[in-house]
Amino acid sequence: MSGFKDKLKGKTYQVKGEIKEKVGKAIDDRSLQVDGKMDQTKGAIFEKVGEIKDKANDVIDKVEHKIKDLKEEQDD
């Protein structure tokens, strides 16, 4: 799964969690509030995973370009 997909999934969980928490407060349902908080936490984790994947892919791309440049220098 790409970083973008993880971040999108994270945002979805966060929004869903916020809605659950607010509805839980409105109808005085503690269980729904807790479920909402858990979804928000899960969403934050997915977002961080997405950010880490994006950063890792950036590093991999830089390393691959550097290796390519070094090979080209050796061929010259």
Automatic annotation (TrEMBL):
InterPro entries: CsbD (IPR008462), UPF0337_stress_rsp (IPR050423), YjbJ_sf (IPR036629). Residues 6-58 form the CsbD-like domain. Belongs to the UPF0337 (CsbD) family. This is CsbD family protein. The lineage of its organism: Bacteria, Bacillati, Bacillota, Bacilli, Bacillales.
